[in-house]
Amino acid sequence: MDFKTKQTQSILNEKYIKLTYDPTDKVVIAKWMGFLKFEDLKRGCEVMNEKIKQENLTRHISDQSELKVLAKELQEYIGGVWFDEVEKLGLRKIAILVAEDVFAQATVNKVNTQAQFRQLQIQTFGSLEKCYQWLTEK
């Protein structure tokens, strides 16, 4: 699969997030960038929640390869609020594309190991191809 030519629809395009939808594989993709502010994270998550609800999505890629350190307040929101919201909406798998940056990677891993997810599976990968592979496996 050639990910450079993959057809996606733009949902939200801001300096902190590029949110797209892949209608072929029914995957919502969030590419987070820079140092996130709480209101930016919350807005991105709310727009994503709407798309998840609208399309009955079960799969999500969180591309954090260009994300800087995730503040504690944001980690708590993701693990304590957002995971619960999307699980109730029907999301079942989140593939996280991790950053090269060791510190950013550490904050991503901290959120994932501390959160409790009933039916939500979360895996971390080093490539977009591996994210897709895991999300689309039967």
Task: Explain the overall architecture.
This is STAS/SEC14 domain-containing protein. It comes from Xanthocytophaga agilis. The protein is of the alpha/beta class. The chain has helices at residues 38-55, 72-89, 102-114, 128-136; strands at 9-13, 17-22, 27-34, 59-67, 93-97, 121-125. The longest helix is centred in the middle third of the chain and has 18 residues, at 38-55.
Short description:
This protein is α/β, with parallel strands linked by helices and 138 residues long. Helix content is 42%, strand content 28%.
How are the SSEs ordered, and which strands pair?
Blueprint: E1 9-13, E2 17-22, E3 27-34, H1 38-55, E4 59-67, H2 72-89, E5 93-97, H3 102-114, E6 121-125, H4 128-136
Parallel strand pairs: 3-4, 4-5, 5-6
Antiparallel strand pairs: 1-2, 2-3
Helix pairs in contact: 1-2, 2-3
Helix content: 40-55%
Q: Which sheet architecture does the biggest sheet show?
A: 6 strands, mixed
Any idea of the CATH class? Alpha Beta
- Give the overall pLDDT as a whole number: 86
Euclidean distance between termini CA atoms: 17 Å
- Quickly count the helices: 4
- Strand order in the sheet with the most strands: 1-2-3-4-5-6
What is the approximate shape?
A: globular
- The CATH architecture classification is 2-Layer Sandwich
**Fraction of residues in β-strands:** 25-35%
Number of strands: 6
Q: Helix and strand succession?
A: EEEHEHEHEH
Number of domain units: 1
Contiguous low-pLDDT stretches (5 residues minimum) are none
Radius of gyration: 14 Å
CATH superfamily: STAS domain
Q: Provide the CATH topology.
A: Transcription Regulator spoIIAA
Protein name: STAS/SEC14 domain-containing protein
Organism: Xanthocytophaga agilis
